[in-house]
Automatic annotation (TrEMBL):
<comment type="function">
    <text>Catalyzes the first step in hexosamine metabolism, converting fructose-6P into glucosamine-6P using glutamine as a nitrogen source.</text>
</comment>
<keyword id="KW-0032">Aminotransferase</keyword>
<feature type="domain" description="SIS">
    <location>
        <begin position="46"/>
        <end position="185"/>
    </location>
</feature>
<dbReference type="GO" id="GO:0046349">
    <property type="term" value="P:amino sugar biosynthetic process"/>
</dbReference>
<dbReference type="GO" id="GO:0006047">
    <property type="term" value="P:UDP-N-acetylglucosamine metabolic process"/>
</dbReference>
<dbReference type="GO" id="GO:0005975">
    <property type="term" value="P:carbohydrate metabolic process"/>
</dbReference>
<protein>
    <recommendedName>
        <fullName>Glutamine--fructose-6-phosphate aminotransferase [isomerizing]</fullName>
        <ecNumber>2.6.1.16</ecNumber>
    </recommendedName>
</protein>
<dbReference type="GO" id="GO:0006487">
    <property type="term" value="P:protein N-linked glycosylation"/>
</dbReference>
<dbReference type="GO" id="GO:0006002">
    <property type="term" value="P:fructose 6-phosphate metabolic process"/>
</dbReference>
<keyword id="KW-0963">Cytoplasm</keyword>
<keyword id="KW-0677">Repeat</keyword>
<keyword id="KW-0315">Glutamine amidotransferase</keyword>
<keyword id="KW-0808">Transferase</keyword>
<dbReference type="GO" id="GO:0005829">
    <property type="term" value="C:cytosol"/>
</dbReference>
<dbReference type="GO" id="GO:0097367">
    <property type="term" value="F:carbohydrate derivative binding"/>
</dbReference>
<feature type="domain" description="SIS">
    <location>
        <begin position="218"/>
        <end position="359"/>
    </location>
</feature>
<comment type="subunit">
    <text>Homodimer.</text>
</comment>
């Protein structure tokens, strides 16, 4: 087993460190930065259909649903197609309005999640086109879908999803650019710029992993907390949700992810000196707004841990602990900001003596509803 873990103490840690490679594998043969072109062979036969669709509905559960929320930002931003993101378990039991002009994207690491499969079947009956995003080749979901794109992250053994999540986000990024390209919503020069940057993301993830020692120190400081809040804005919000889910799953600390601006509508009541608040506070369009949210937490003596852009000055003046990630276009922020949060929950869980790879009550794939 030690061999299988490649010298790491746990599968989860191995899988976290695999991400520069898994993301590169996911992009291989699909992006052409010099030409400003994205190719997705798996959905090619629907290239024309993409020009006329009215709406995209993303269905998924858990971490895959968080990837879906990132996808919503990207598809709306670049392809300008309205997107709805639904929990498969809720979607299947409603009477949703679905037409032949809808594309349903089902996201699943395992490809065997019962609720996601049922949601696909229902949408198919109502005439939608189904695209699957899956990590396991030949699983049920790719077989149920009309077309799809594999994430190619390699087998994920840790029950808490890490590399599968970032690969799902990568595929959704590629899909957003592909749809934008098919619909003429983006210029070639803009695509050249974005794809050139995307190509550098695996190296930047490698750099983000180098903060491991600092993250371990921060983990030591907050490992005994009973609660933890994760806040972000824009596509930093699904990153916050995913950070909170990881911490809950493996360390059993109660954690919540929230859009930072929603804090004052309720969760702010929880803040005192015992409450660690993890902010996604990178330099992007919401930077200034996040800074004022940090001030609100500090004014109530909360403990602020901030994920910041390399070289940040402003947040460092306020936060108790800062973890740096490399600068990147806002489109790729979720891919980078997720890395320190994975490491944070990993170290906290190890320090608390938890079974990181097989947390209590959880299964790798939920094949019952
Ligand atoms: C992730 O850490 C979880 N254990 C869980 O939320 C998972 O993402 C969810 O059950 C969906 O699984 P799937 O991607 O295989 O469909």
């Amino acid at each position: 087993e030690m061999l299988e873990k490649g010298g790491f103490d746990h599968f989860m840690l191995k899988e976290i460190y695999e991400q520069p490679r898994s993301i590169r594998d996911c992009m291989r043969g699909r992006i052409y930065p010099e030409e400003g072109k994205v190719q997705l062979g798996g959905i090619k036969e629907f290239a024309d259909k993409l020009k006329n669709i009215d709406r995209i509905i993303i269905v998924a559960c858990g971490t895959s649903w968080h990837a879906g929320l990132v996808g919503e930002y990207l598809i709306e931003e670049y392809a300008r197609i309205p997107v709805e993101v639904e929990y498969a378990s809720e979607f299947r039991y409603r009477n949703p309005i679905i037409t032949e002009k809808d594309v349903v994207i089902a996201i699943s690491q395992s490809g065997e999640t019962a609720d996601t499969m049922a949601a696909i079947e229902m949408a198919k009956e109502r005439g939608a086109t189904i695209f699957g995003i899956c990590n396991v080749a030949g699983a049920s979901i790719p077989r149920l879908s009309h077309a799809g794109v594999y994430t190619h992250a390699g087998p994920e053994i840790g029950v808490a999803s890490t590399k599968a999540f970032t690969a799902q986000v990568t595929v959704l990024t590629l899909m957003a650019f592909y749809m934008a390209q098919q619909r003429g919503a983006i210029t070639t020069s803009k695509l050249i710029e974005l794809l050139t940057e995307l190509n550098e993301i695996p190296d930047k993830i490698q750099t983000a992993l180098e903060s491991n020692d600092i993250i371990k120190e921060v983990s030591e400081k907050i490992k005994d907390s009973r609660n933890c809040l994760f806040l972000g804005r824009g596509s930093g919000f699904p990153v916050a949700l995913e950070g909170a889910l990881k911490l809950k799953e493996i360390s059993y600390i109660h954690a919540e992810g929230y859009p930072a601006a929603e804090m004052k509508h309720g969760p702010i009541a929880l803040i005192d000196e015992e409450m660690p608040v993890v902010f996604i506070a990178t330099q992007n369009s919401s930077y200034e707004k996040v800074i004022s949210n940090i001030q609100e937490v500090k004014a109530r003596k909360g403990k602020v841990i901030a994920i910041v852009t390399e070289g940040d000055v402003e947040v460092k003046k306020m936060a108790d602990y800062c973890i740096e990630i490399p600068d990147a276009n806002e489109a790729f922020l979720p891919l980078l900001a997720t890395i320190p949060l994975q490491l944070l929950s990993y170290h906290i869980a190890v320090m608390r003596g938890c079974n990181v790879d097989q947390p209590r009550n959880l299964a790798k794939s939920v094949t019952v509803e």
